[in-house]
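A reminder from the course coordinator: this example appears on the midterm review sheet, so study it carefully.

Given structure:
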């Protein structure tokens, strides 16, 4: 312990130094090492806490921003989807409206350029069915095939020029599928007049599988020989005058009555029910190339000529229309096909679109 001298020279004990609480700076602002380390540690901890709070705040802000963006994207996506649906609905409505408007325009003739004046005139002499048959029976032929010594029949055909016959496009397809040599045998010739077919040409727009309706089911045959009789084709005026209630006469070789060895044609009579465009829609007379009739034809009648009351060919018989009903038999769904009285013919001027065989 330090001592100090008093005025008389005596030594007195030094006053004890003031002691500061641990961890607090002394009078000169100094702290011990332990306190300094603790202060630094506390500062670091506080700083880390502030940083964590800042990071948490940043994360919260970022999460909120992502949620806002997700909501906006969802709303935008729903808006885009709704817009696409609206566009699709508008397109369908517009398309159907346009179809209806086009159909109505076709029915009344709006928007269609006037057709050229038809050539020819309507004949004045109406013939009986017997007269029509007698005038044209030798222009009729059975279209068939020859394989070795066997002769089979496919369809009917008729001469429109000495070496050119008309028939259906599907007949050309079917006869080719039989193989052998394609031939034609003249009606009522006792099988003595038979010609090979040297070339066949179908309408380029014909689409197989449409049962004669929906595409031009017509074709031409070139034969190696000369037909002794040809039919007379109706002129433009006659074709445009075709309408419901007109007489229709079909001469051909129906089904089981076809004899390819010695053919004998069958005469059938009916009425025209309606005439339409190739798409089976109403149209102007110059485009009404599909003829519906009710003459009782059968399979072999495909390719038969259809005559009007003047004895002129107005069309080529192509198919019959079947009625289909959906029924349930023993719990199973099935389609029942019933024969319909309606038949389809192709107007004869469709042959103008067939390339020469």
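Designed residues:
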């Amino acid at each position: 312990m330090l001592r100090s001298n008093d005025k008389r020279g005596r030594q007195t004990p030094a006053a004890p130094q003031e002691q500061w609480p641990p961890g607090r700076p002394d009078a000169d602002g100094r702290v011990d090492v332990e306190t300094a380390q603790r202060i630094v540690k506390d500062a670091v901890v506080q700083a880390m806490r502030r940083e964590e709070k800042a990071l948490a705040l940043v994360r919260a802000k970022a999460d909120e921003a992502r949620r806002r963006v997700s909501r906006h994207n969802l709303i935008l996506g729903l808006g885009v989807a709704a817009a696409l649906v609206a566009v699709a609905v508008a397109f369908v409505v517009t398309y159907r409206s346009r179809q209806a408007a086009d159909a109505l325009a076709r029915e009344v003739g709006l928007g269609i350029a006037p057709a050229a004046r038809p050539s020819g005139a309507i004949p004045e002499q109406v013939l009986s069915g017997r007269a029509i048959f007698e005038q044209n029976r030798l222009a009729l032929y059975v279209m068939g095939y020859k394989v070795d010594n066997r002769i089979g029949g496919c369809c009917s055909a008729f001469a429109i020029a000495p070496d050119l016959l008309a028939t259906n496009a599907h007949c050309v397809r079917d006869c080719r599928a039989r193989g052998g040599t394609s031939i034609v045998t003249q009606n009522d010739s006792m099988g003595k007049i038979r010609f090979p077919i040297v070339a066949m040409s179908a309408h380029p727009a014909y689409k197989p599988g449409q049962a004669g309706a929906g595409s031009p089911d017509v074709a031409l045959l070139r034969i190696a020989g000369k037909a002794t009789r040809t039919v007379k084709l109706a002129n433009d005026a006659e074709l445009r005058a075709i309408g419901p209630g007109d007489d229709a006469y079909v001469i051909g070789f129906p089904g089981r009555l076809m004899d390819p060895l010695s053919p004998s044609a069958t005469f059938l009579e009916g009425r025209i029910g309606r005439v339409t465009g190739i798409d089976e829609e109403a149209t102007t007379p110059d485009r009404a190339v599909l003829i519906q009739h009710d003459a009782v034809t059968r399979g072999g009648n495909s390719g038969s000529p259809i005559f009007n009351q003047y004895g002129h060919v107005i069309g080529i018989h192509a198919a019959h229309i079947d009625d289909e009903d959906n029924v349930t038999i023993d719990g199973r769904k099935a389609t029942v096909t019933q024969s319909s009285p309606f038949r389809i013919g192709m107007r004869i001027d469709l042959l103008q679109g067939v390339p020469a065989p």
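The longest strand covers residues 313-329. The chain has a mean pLDDT of 83.
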